[in-house]
């Protein structure tokens, strides 16, 4: 009964590699320690940025990186983060632990990080507590090559050529921490800010408006009605979490039972419902799908690790997170006609991180490994899949046991990612492939021995990808057994 029907002949839509984007905020130990250690650090670094982290992130081919927030963005004044470090003013990071931010990691350091990663920068500007002038000057500082007050300032700070930053977010969560605005008010503000973020010297900015929180369809409707003609993307935020009566996130990242397992997986899958609902509204105003739905904050959010600063949002990462990542990425792939960027929260030491650090030590999380395995889908062409899956049920909750997406790359290799969400049962399935023949299949698998399998600083390789040999070429395509709680990526030649 478990069958995925793939039609290569219907492959049309490119899976934008920016769907595999990331998000790094001035929050907890994401930027400071996670990325930035400073040039004097004993931790090996290049221009103050740690080498181990950069080389790990290069392996997952980070295509785009969103910065400086998050809620931090709407309190951030970029001019405090340029010039000689000893002269940079500090500020209080009121959202995240009330710690003092010394502004040593600013615009130049962020662009240096992007250079080292060879990724696109995505800058989120300050609408909540900033001004139009401030954001307009930031664009000029980064993108204007001629002679102007901002380009002179940039040159005084050691950078001659403009960077030419394409992706600009006009505020963050302006319905909440970014100003508590109504959609009507924000839409007007958005139009004003977007206008003064100029296209210098042929560099067409890609302007991203603050989008809805979760299922706020009214926000999407108002923004599309009032401002769709001025935007390239609308940013949806959705976190997979459980909230207690006080609205605080509850549930531990590593201590959970099967009810928590299925509950989080179900909530992760709910993002497809959100994508469908918001896309339907966007279709009314933009049937050509010119405006992208950008999922620029998503991922799991649990209570912080015991004993850590509650404002730092530091959490571990298990096979459960890996499955939320895999199923979400499958959903984004399948909706690649509307979703052209997604940025998981966050890159290092915060929420559903790729990397955790402990001073000079570093480990890669199960989520990191999913991103590494899924690099095959970057910029490949989506192959439509019709999936018939058995269900997995526990404690009154029922979800499809299998998740799947597929793509074909320029070399004609077909890649299929398939996950099994059931923690008890291996599942035999058929991949019925139309539109091409299959002569060989190989693959890799990510799995663990328990639902909460994870990597620690003492055992950093407990969960990692391995060669997979339970798929063979069959009569109509490929026959596979997907082991319980696993993520498999196949290459079919
Ligand atoms: O990612 C953590 C926070 O979640 C971000 O700062 C904010 O935008 C969202 O509420």
Task: Report what the structure shows.
By secondary structure, the protein is of the alpha/beta class. The protein folds into two domains: 15-378, Alpha-Beta Barrel (TIM Barrel); 385-492, Immunoglobulin-like (Sandwich), CATH 2.60.40. The protein is 24% helix and 29% strand. The chain has helices at 51-59, 107-117, 132-143, 149-156, 183-196, 217-227, 258-285, 319-334, 366-373; strands at residues 3-7, 21-23, 45-46, 49-50, 64-67, 91-93, 99-101, 120-125, 167-170, 206-213, 233-243, 249-250, 292-301, 339-345, 355-358, 361-364, 381-383, 385-388, 391-394, 397-400, 402-408, 414-420, 427-434, 441-447, 466-468, 471-473, 477-482, 486-492. It has an eight-stranded parallel beta barrel with strand order 2-5-8-9-10-11-13-14, surrounded by five helices. A six-stranded antiparallel β-sheet has the order 17-21-22-28-24-25, covered by helices on one side. Strands 18-1-23-27-26 form a five-stranded mixed β-sheet, with no helix packed on it. A hairpin with a 2-residue loop joins strand 19 and strand 20 (397-400). Helix 3 (132-143) packs across helix 4 (149-156), helix 5 (183-196) crosses helix 6 and helix 8 runs parallel beside helix 9 (366-373). The mean pLDDT is 97. Bound molecules: alpha-L-arabinofuranose. Alpha-L-arabinofuranose binds at residues 25, 69-71, 172-173, 297, 345-346, 351.
